[in-house]
Design a protein that fits this description.
Two copies of one chain form a homodimer.
Chain A lengths: L7 H12 L6 H9 L7 H14 L3 E3 L6 E3 L6 E5 L5 E4 L7 H5 L5 E14 H4 L1
Chain A binds a DNA duplex (30 and 30 nucleotides) through helix 1 and helix 3.
Chain lengths: ~130, ~130
DNA sequence: TATAATAATAGTAACAATTATCGTTATTGA
DNA sequence: TCAATAACGATAATTGTTACTATTATTATA
């Protein structure tokens, strides 16, 4: 179902997600919010994250293991650290033509694209 | 643990995966192989797929839901059909410089990259 | 402002995907 | 041929996520 009524919980989830620039999993978000809202339910976090990513208000990112969420809905790229499994933003300029060009190699239509770099973050290199 | 001894099961998994050009999940692979090897175990399929993707013999692809596997270990791109959730190969020429260029936007080192197009395949458009 | 309709919640059970365990079997090097 | 052990099948356990249900909160309207 789509979002119609507001709730304190959803507002808090969006707030928290937009304030942080890591890309937390549902559980990480839940644990952070649980301190301020002690009877928040993990199911509520999942339900809202799904509604919001369905709307396009936030992004869901699957890279193996638990899904990550990103409060920045504008297309941009990510790097996954193979060691710590953290996801980072990569401010690489968006490849504006890639979807148009890719049509020639695809049987169907393209609506978006995602690029994920895999590597090792500085924290894990030292 | 790394691959040391051979097994009929692993050979069959590699064979099947390289013969097909869809990108089956562990369970799809298991069901296909179960016909030829009736006492194959799903755990064996998972264990081997993980060992082989750790080696770089095959690729594991996470796009939400069950992981997909690809017998082609050379870097290439994919499209996910948002309707049927099938994964397709996209023969878009590999962007040779993208990792080198992305280093400027990353705190760490980059070892690989993946590009996934999201769209709707022809089967689902009609 | 009170009320009625119902979206959203908390808590929990169920489910799906994957990994771990463990006793047995198969592979391989000596 | 045999001993060491990787790999197996069967199944239990774990993890991540979704579904269910009774209760609470939000919101449009009277």
């Amino acid at each position: 179902m789509a979002v119609t009524k507001r709730s304190k919980q959803r507002d808090a989830i969006i707030d928290e997600l937009c304030q942080r620039h890591d890309h937390p999993t549902a559980e990480e978000l839940y644990l952070a919010l649980k301190m301020k809202m002690p009877n928040l339910s993990l199911g509520t976090v999942y339900r809202n994250l799904n509604m919001l990513s369905d709307d396009g208000t936030i992004q869901k990112i699957s890279v193996g293991g638990a899904d990550h969420f990103d409060g920045n809905a504008n297309n941009h790229y990510h790097m996954l650290c193979a060691e710590c499994k953290r996801l980072y933003d990569v401010a690489y300029p968006v490849l504006e033509d890639i979807e148009k060009n890719a049509v020639n190699f695809v049987d169907g239509k393209i609506t978006s694209h995602m690029i994920t770099f895999i590597g090792v973050c500085n924290g894990c290199l030292h």
